[in-house]
Design brief:
Elements (H helix, E strand, L loop, with lengths): L2 H8 L36 H11 L7 H5 L2 E4 L7 E4 L2 E4 L6 H13 L4 H14 L4 H9 L7 H12 L16
Parallel strand pairs: 1-3
Antiparallel strand pairs: 2-3
Helix pairs in contact: 2-4, 4-7
Bound molecules: zinc ion (ZN).
């Protein structure tokens, strides 16, 4: 064996260039649930301020403000649920009158404007992406209320994911994107 070959045997291969690897960002629900406020009263909560907070946090298009400004929001501490929606009117307990609850109820307002075909198409699109989109899978693993009815799934996807929901679902949220 010649010296050259011998040296080659001991020569370390060149170190590969160091390429910084992107640090994976752990998935997190973009709009986590706010705690209820047991001290809130009809006098202490401003529904208009809650509405404005929802507009900003959920990036509601400004062109939709007139539509959502016209939705009446009533507070009633005696209702059986944190909040509900009937037509163009939302009723909520003061303790639960916060932007996330409002986002959920406003999604119901939009749902009621959709045709039966649009609702059926949403169900199909939702079922198709539930197990494949990481954000949807994460939400599904943490949220059992989505399974109660497709109308609730529609509202919960918007309420918790907002603009981070899969693009394929956004067309079922007219005025909200
Ligand atoms: Zn609901």
């Amino acid at each position: 064996m010649c010296l050259k070959k011998l040296l080659e045997l001991f020569q370390k291969p060149g170190s590969p260039p160091v390429v910084p690897q992107p640090v994976p960002i752990p998935l997190a629900i973009p709009h986590p649930e706010e705690p209820m406020n047991p001290d809130a009263t009809i006098q202490s909560v401003s529904v208009d301020m809650v509405r404005q907070s929802w507009y900003l946090q959920w990036q509601v298009p400004e062109s939709s403000y007139p539509f959502f400004d016209a939705i009446k929001i009533k507070m009633d501490p005696t209702i059986a649920f944190p909040a509900w929606t009937c037509g163009n009117e939302i009723t909520c307990q003061p303790a639960f009158c916060n932007p996330g609850v409002l986002a959920h109820e406003m999604a119901h307002v939009i749902w009621f404007t959709m045709t039966d075909n649009q609702k059926a198409d949403f169900q199909t699109a939702y079922n198709a992406i539930l197990a494949t989109d990481p954000m949807m899978t994460l939400l599904d693993s943490q949220n059992s209320y989505m399974n109660t009815a497709i109308v609730e799934a529609h509202a919960e996807v918007y309420r918790y994911l907002g603009e981070r929901m899969p693009d394929s679902l956004k067309k079922y949220y007219p005025k909200l994107f």
